[in-house]
Amino acid sequence: MAECRRLHCESTVGKKGADGEEEKTGSNPTDRGKSGTKRNLLTDAKGIPLSIALSGANRHDSKMLSAMLEGIVVAVPILGAEEERHLVLDRGYDTASCRKVAEQHALTAHIPKKATEATPLPPPGDPERHPPRRWVVEVSHSWFNRFRRLLIRWEKKASHHMGFVQLVACLIIWRKIAPLAPRLSG
């Protein structure tokens, strides 16, 4: 099942292909100003999606953190006083407001420094001892991108595109949990 002690958060930009009225799109700074949609993703330690939010490609990652944390629909177990939950973020979330949002949700934020490779490992007990593992959420984004329907957004309305994203999330979760079913029932 999902391990809720370490959460991973990141976003990726997709291209927009539909014409006409669009929602949750914005100019993509990496694609000559064409409009696009950003998929913000929050996963558990195994890469299973817990929360998804859509935004315009020109919207900063840090603005969507509270929406993703509030969008978790999985019941999070209550941990003991000595156990803490960790939130792994990339450098785009390195703001005071993101750290405050993490504190409000009782999460310890882990944001990499610019010289991650050159810094020595902190002593035991230091919250910076747990190095960020961005590859977990990167793998989750690649699972989403295997579905061609999500690579280019053809839907005009954000609610239609979000429906496809949620359907793909359900398929990903099913593929990760289905192998556990024989062990859980017997």
Description:
Residues 16-25 have a biased composition (Basic and acidic residues). Residues 21-171 form the Transposase IS4-like domain. One of its GO terms (biological process) is DNA transposition. InterPro entries: Transposase_11. This is IS5 family transposase. By secondary structure, the protein is of the alpha/beta class. The protein has a single domain (6-113, 131-178), classed as Nucleotidyltransferase, domain 5 (2-Layer Sandwich). Helices cover 30% and strands 22% of the residues. It is built from six helices and seven strands, in the order ββββαβαβααβαα. The protein has helices spanning 65-70, 96-104, 135-145, 148-151, 158-177, 181-185; strands spanning 6-16, 26-27, 35-43, 49-56, 85-88, 107-110, 152-153. Strands 1, 2, 3, 4, 5, 6 and 7 form a seven-stranded mixed sheet that branches. A hairpin with a 5-residue loop joins β3 and β4 (49-56).
Structural domains: how many: 1
Number of helices: 6
What would you give as the CATH superfamily? Ribonuclease H-like superfamily/Ribonuclease H
CATH architecture: 2-Layer Sandwich
Rg measurement, Å: 18 Å
Derived structural class: alpha/beta
- The CATH class is Alpha Beta
Q: Can you give keywords for this protein?
A:
seven-stranded mixed beta sheet, single chain, 186 residues, 30% helix, alpha/beta, Nucleotidyltransferase, domain 5, 6 helices
